[in-house]
Amino acid sequence: MTVAQGAGRRRTAWLGRRWPTAAGIVMAASLAAAFWVGFADLRDLAQILTAAGLVYLGAGALRRRAAAWPLFAMTFVLIGIGFAVPGFDPTLWMSGIAVALLVYGLARGALRPPWGMPLQAGVMVLIVALVVVAAWVGQPWAGVLVGVGLLAHAGWDVYHHRTRRVVASSMAEFCCVLDTLVGVALIVTSLVA
C-alpha cells in the first residue's frame, strides 16, 4: 500500500464516522435556504425545536437510545406533511405524541433513571412553552427566542453525546450540528431583517 492509499483510507474512515455532522450541515443549509427564500417561516423552524424535544423524550420513554432515529424520521414526516397540507399543525401532533409517549413510559416504569424520561419530559415542557411564547411575540424577538432555544438544545446534544445517554450518539451529533447552524442563522436573519 502506498502512502497516498493509506491517507485516502484514513480520510474515508474519518468521513464515514462523521456522517451525522455532514447530514446535519446539509439539513441545516436546506432549512436556512428555505427560510431565506420564504418557503419556510419561523413557525416551521420552531417545529425543529419541538421535534428535538420529542426525539429525546421518546427515546427516554422507550428506554432505547436507538429509538431516536425512527422518532426523528416520524417528526420529519410530520413536518413534511405540515408543508404539504394546509391547516395541519405538526407542533400540535408532536405535542400529542409526546404526551402519549410520556403515558407509555409511566406505564412501563420509565421513571428511572432520572436523567431519562423524567428529565426529558421537563425539557419537553420547557420547549413547548418557549415555542408558545415565540408564537405570541413579534419578530425579531420570536426568531431570537427560537434561535436561542436551538442553541440551548445544541448544548443538550453535546452533553448527551459525551455521556452516551438517552439517544444514539449519532443522533446527538447530528442534532447538535443542525441546532447550532439553524439557531445561529435564525438569530442573525431575525436581527438583520
What are its keywords?
single chain, 193 residues, mainly alpha
Question: In words, what does this structure look like?
Answer:
By secondary structure, this protein is mostly helical. The protein has one domain. It contains 8 helices and no strands. The chain has helices spanning 3-17, 19-37, 42-62, 68-84, 90-107, 117-136, 141-163, 169-192. Helix 2 packs parallel to helix 8 (169-192), helix 3 packs antiparallel against helix 6 (117-136) and helix 5 (90-107) packs antiparallel against helix 6. The longest helix is centred in the C-terminal third of the chain and has 24 residues, at 169-192. It is globular. It starts with a helix and ends with a helix. The relative contact order is 0.16. The mean pLDDT is 91.
N-to-C SSE string, H for helix and E for strand: HHHHHHHH
Number of domains: 1
* Strand content bin: under 5%
Work out the number of β strands.
0
Summarize the amount of helix as a percent range. over 70%
For the residues shown, what is the average pLDDT? Answer: 91
Structure summary:
The chain is an all-alpha fold and 193 residues long.
